[in-house]
């Protein structure tokens, strides 16, 4: 995989990559270094080896943008206690979801679980696995290995995607928190990227975004990156190779990056 710096200045929804508040990390006064965005070009993804070119913007909202906008408006209406507007937006979302098989099945699955109709839930789950094998994953993950916590959140970047050419662009933000009492250094990264057709790319490289950061106890390191995919959904998982640097000759160890989804609709239906 070849890494390219990209100017993502025009990406309006990059703020949606924000991870849970730092207070939730379980570390008091934990300082973080925030780093730049890069893009990873996956061989065979149809994107080529150069920087991804942004597609021209339509004057009309795409279906993905419309869905995201409706969800945002529903949240605003609910917080403002405008229940009439919230009900209208909820109904609009339901209509939208009925037209999208994955969203419809996600909603039906959630309802079946809430109502303890587990046979129905199992059927909806199996249907989802058949048409969109990665949609049962969330677009975020959280895992801890030997006191090193890795949190990830992904988001679909509409403005840099070209669905007609089989190019879907996803950005993701990673936060690494050292909750242990020993300093560590991140040496290498390993990613497994799988598209909706089951095609898998295994990618390895030195460090992240051109660095091999040292992360002291009770501190953290954040960076953002991006990856094109040839399908509208997929998944990523992997690990970071690290070592403790407070003693000479220590062995390296792997820190898990738990699986998370890449999806044009984010985490899907959550309007019930």
TrEMBL record:
Tree of life domain: Eukaryota
User: ApaG domain location, by residue?
Assistant: 142-269
- All copies of the UVR domain together span 64-99, 99-134
Which InterPro entries does the protein's record reference?
A: ApaG-like, ApaG_domain, ApaG_sf, UVR_dom
Q: Which PANTHER family match?
A: OS05G0170800 PROTEIN (PTHR47191)
> Any idea what this protein is called?
Uncharacterized protein LOC105157230 isoform X2
Species of origin: Sesamum indicum
Q: Which gene does this sequence derive from?
A: LOC105157230
